[in-house]
Amino acid sequence: SQEAVRASRREAGECRRQLQARLVEMESLRGAHQSLERQLQELEERHNAEAAGLQDTIGQLEDDLRNTKNEMARHLREYQDLLNVKMALDIEIAAYRKLLEGEETLFNLGSVGLPSLNSLPSPTYSFQPRSFSSST
């Protein structure tokens, strides 16, 4: 029976050592778990800060895009206004050209019947540019 008691004590000691080893291992794993939780929290905070920075950048780029579109629309309106002025000037030039050609034709027809006017020099036309001020 003493032999059984010694075996039981050895077995109990072995169980205590295993229990101690498991407790140490458990504490080690608990520390590793806490460390990983801290790292995870730090990563989440860093990623949240980075995401907020990227959202700010996106907002700034959207503002820049909106401003650029507004500026393009303004330039397009100015271009359209200038194109309208150009078209009006082209129409006016064509009208003056037609009038000048008509006067020249009348002058040539009138000079056929009047031989004394043939000695006059032929009329020359000079273009006097008008300055236009634009409100745009």
Automatic annotation (TrEMBL):
<keyword id="KW-0175">Coiled coil</keyword>
<dbReference type="GO" id="GO:0005737">
    <property type="term" value="C:cytoplasm"/>
</dbReference>
<dbReference type="GO" id="GO:0005882">
    <property type="term" value="C:intermediate filament"/>
</dbReference>
<comment type="similarity">
    <text>Belongs to the intermediate filament family.</text>
</comment>
<feature type="domain" description="IF rod">
    <location>
        <begin position="1"/>
        <end position="107"/>
    </location>
</feature>
<dbReference type="Pfam" id="PF00038">
    <property type="entry name" value="Filament"/>
</dbReference>
<dbReference type="InterPro" id="IPR018039">
    <property type="entry name" value="IF_conserved"/>
</dbReference>
<dbReference type="InterPro" id="IPR050405">
    <property type="entry name" value="Intermediate_filament"/>
</dbReference>
<dbReference type="GO" id="GO:0099160">
    <property type="term" value="C:postsynaptic intermediate filament cytoskeleton"/>
</dbReference>
<dbReference type="InterPro" id="IPR039008">
    <property type="entry name" value="IF_rod_dom"/>
</dbReference>
<dbReference type="GO" id="GO:0045109">
    <property type="term" value="P:intermediate filament organization"/>
</dbReference>
<protein>
    <submittedName>
        <fullName>AINX protein</fullName>
    </submittedName>
</protein>
<keyword id="KW-0403">Intermediate filament</keyword>
<feature type="coiled-coil region">
    <location>
        <begin position="26"/>
        <end position="85"/>
    </location>
</feature>
<dbReference type="GO" id="GO:0099184">
    <property type="term" value="F:structural constituent of postsynaptic intermediate filament cytoskeleton"/>
</dbReference>
